[in-house]
Specification:
Strand order of the largest sheet: 9-8-7-10-11
Helix content: 40-55%
Number of strands: 11
Largest sheet: 5 strands, mixed
Order of helices and strands: HHEEHEEHEEEHHEHEHEEH
Structural class: alpha/beta
Length: 257
């Protein structure tokens, strides 16, 4: 009997060790990183991009779908940690949130997971029908953009994170300015005159469409800004992204297809 128990224990230890060696070890201590909210927040914002392509692992190092991974982040008691890897792939694993961790961590992760899951569900669907004019009077519609890769930034004047990334998105637009098959468009909540006054001081190298609050709330159902969309040449949503860093990675990939 004792011999059988020992064999079972050895089998379990072997499997745990195999899982760790196969996918790599956590790049930070999953328990230590939970002790201080600011430490976890800094790690999360810099190292975890839930909008990117990654190999999803549950708390037992078993591969699961990205949808299941995001759903567990949104509704259960986990934090995501990236694993060290020798290849170019990204491996994110779920680790249980400790009972003595800052409660703000769980609340924040649940919200991040909810937003990421909602965005993920939009990918692979047709971008909602629209036909509007930008600040220069140019028609912007599904038909006028057909056959091109479209980068869309959703924002409003008083959104601090939206404005903070202006230099980065402008640089990105400049990098692709010779690509006639890639268009950069922004949907803004604000009225035309307010936008013109604001953009005179803080230029945005995107085509700017005003008065988009109702469209973004109802057609796109956005509750977080900035939000970026990448559409393929068939008008399908390829990626829905929360920040510039993930946008840059996704656009580079789509532009090479």
């Amino acid at each position: 009997m004792q011999k059988s128990i020992n064999l079972i224990l050895l089998f379990l230890i072997f499997n745990v060790s195999f899982a760790q060696s196969k996918f790599g070890n956590p790049e930070v201590d999953p328990i230590q990183i939970q002790k201080v909210y600011t430490d976890w927040s800094a790690y999360q914002s810099k190292n975890i991009m839930l909008s990117r392509d990654f190999i999803a692992l549950d708390s037992n190092s078993k591969e699961i779908s990205k949808e299941s991974f995001l759903n567990q982040l949104a509704n259960e008691n986990y934090i995501p940690i990236r694993l060290k890897s020798e290849d170019s792939k990204y491996y994110y694993k779920l680790f249980e949130i400790q009972p003595n961790s800052d409660t703000s961590i769980k609340a924040t992760i649940n919200q991040i997971g909810f937003d990421a899951h909602k965005n993920f569900e939009m990918e692979g669907t047709q971008f909602p029908k629209f036909s509007f004019k930008d600040l220069n009077g140019n028609l912007v519609s599904n038909e006028s953009m057909k056959g091109k890769i479209i980068v869309i930034k959703c924002w409003y004047i008083h959104c601090t994170p939206c404005i903070k990334e202006f230099p980065q998105v402008n640089k990105l637009a400049d990098e692709y300015k010779d690509r006639k098959d890639i268009l950069f468009i922004s949907l803004a909540e604000d009225a035309p005159e307010k936008l013109k006054t604001f953009l005179a001081k803080r230029p945005l190298r995107y085509s700017v469409v005003p008065n988009m609050k109702v469209y973004m709330n109802e057609a796109l159902q956005l509750n977080s800004f900035p939000t970026h969309f990448i559409l393929n040449k068939e008008g399908m949503i390829v990626k829905v992204l929360p920040n510039f860093e993930s946008l840059e990675v996704a656009l580079e990939k789509e532009s090479k297809l």
